[in-house]
Specification:
The chain has about 260 residues and is an alpha/beta fold. It has 8 helices and 9 strands.
C-alpha cells in the first residue's frame, strides 16, 4: 500500500517491510527497509536478479508490493517522479523535441508552457541544437540525454534511474556521470540510481545501498563522504580507491548471503 507523507517530512522515500513475490512464486524482494532523504543521491548496487529494478518500480508506483508500506510524497504532487530506463525507448518516427514533449502531452500541458518546458529540458542536458534531429541520427549517449530530458521536462521531485549508462562506452559513461552530478547539484532533486558498477556507484552517490541476492534485502549501506564537486581528480584519488575497495568487499559478502544488521 502507499501512504501519504506530509511535506514537512525530511524523507523523500520510505520503505518499511516491503516484499515482492510474483505470481510464479518467485520471491524477488524483501523484506526491505529503506529511507532516502530529500535531495539525496542514493545508488542501489547488487548482482543481476537481486531486486534492484523491482524496488525502483515499486517506488515509482509501476508495480505494487506484496506486503509492506511505501511512502513517496512526490507521487501525490503535480511534479511526481521521473524515470530513466536502461534503454532510451525513444519513438523513432518523431524528433527529439517531440520525444521530450511526450510526458507533457500525456499530462495535457499545452503551449506555450509545453514548448518552454521542452526548450529548458533540452538545454539542461546539452541538446538544444538537436531538437529537430531524429533518434536514428543520435549516438547512444545522446539518446540517453534525450531520455533524461524527457524525465526532467515535468520538473519531478524524484528521479529514478535503472542502469541508464550500462550499455555505453566508458568515456561516454564518465561524461554522463559528470553531467548527471552537475544536474543533481543544480536542481536539488532526490535521485535513486540502480547500477551493477561499484565504480559508478561510488563516484555518483552520497550513499551506496548494497543488496543481497534474491530475495533482495539490504546487506550494507556505505556512505561516500567525498568533497564536492566530484571530478576526474576524485576518480584518481586514494580516497576513491578506498571507497571502491570497501563497497566491492560488501558486494562480495552480499553474494555469499551474509546479511548485516
Amino acid at each position: 500500500m502507499v501512504s501519504p507523507v506530509s511535506r514537512e517530512n525530511e524523507f523523500a522515500i520510505r520503505l518499511r517491510g516491503v516484499t515482492k513475490t510474483y505470481d510464479s512464486g518467485t520471491r524477488a524482494l524483501g523484506p526491505l527497509d529503506l529511507d532516502v532523504r530529500k535531495g539525496e543521491f542514493v545508488s542501489l548496487l547488487g548482482a543481476s536478479g537481486c531486486g534492484k529494478s523491482t524496488a525502483l518500480r515499486l517506488i515509482a508506483g509501476l508495480a505494487a508490493p506484496t506486503s509492506g508500506v511505501i511512502e513517496v510524497p512526490a507521487r501525490a504532487s503535480r511534479q511526481g517522479i521521473g524515470f530513466v530506463f536502461q534503454e532510451p525507448t525513444l519513438m523513432p518516427w518523431t524528433t527529439v523535441r517531440e520525444n521530450v514533449r511526450l510526458p507533457l502531452k500525456l499530462a495535457h500541458v499545452v503551449d506555450p508552457e509545453s514548448t518552454a518546458r521542452v526548450i529548458e529540458a533540452l538545454a539542461q542536458v546539452g541538446l538544444s541544437d538537436f531538437a529537430d534531429a531524429y533518434p536514428r541520427e543520435l549516438s547512444g549517449g545522446m539518446k540517453m540525454r534525450v531520455s533524461l530530458a524527457r524525465a526532467l521536462v515535468t520538473s519531478p521531485d524524484v528521479l529514478l534511474f535503472d542502469e541508464p549508462f550500462a550499455a555505453l562506452d566508458e568515456i561516454t559513461r564518465f561524461r554522463l556521470n559528470n553531467d548527471l552530478l552537475a544536474l543533481w547539484r543544480r536542481l536539488g532533486k532526490t535521485v535513486v540510481f540502480v547500477t551493477h558498477s561499484v565504480y559508478e556507484s561510488v563516484y555518483l552517490s552520497q550513499r551506496v545501498v548494497v543488496m543481497t541476492s534474491r530475495p533482495g534485502r539490504i546487506h550494507r549501506e556505505c556512505r561516500i563522504e567525498a568533497p564536492e564537486p566530484r571530478d576526474d581528480a576524485f576518480r584518481m584519488s586514494m580516497a576513491y580507491a578506498g571507497y571502491c575497495r570497501d563497497v566491492s568487499q560488501a558486494l562480495m559478502q552480499a553474494g555469499e548471503g551474509e546479511v548485516l544488521a
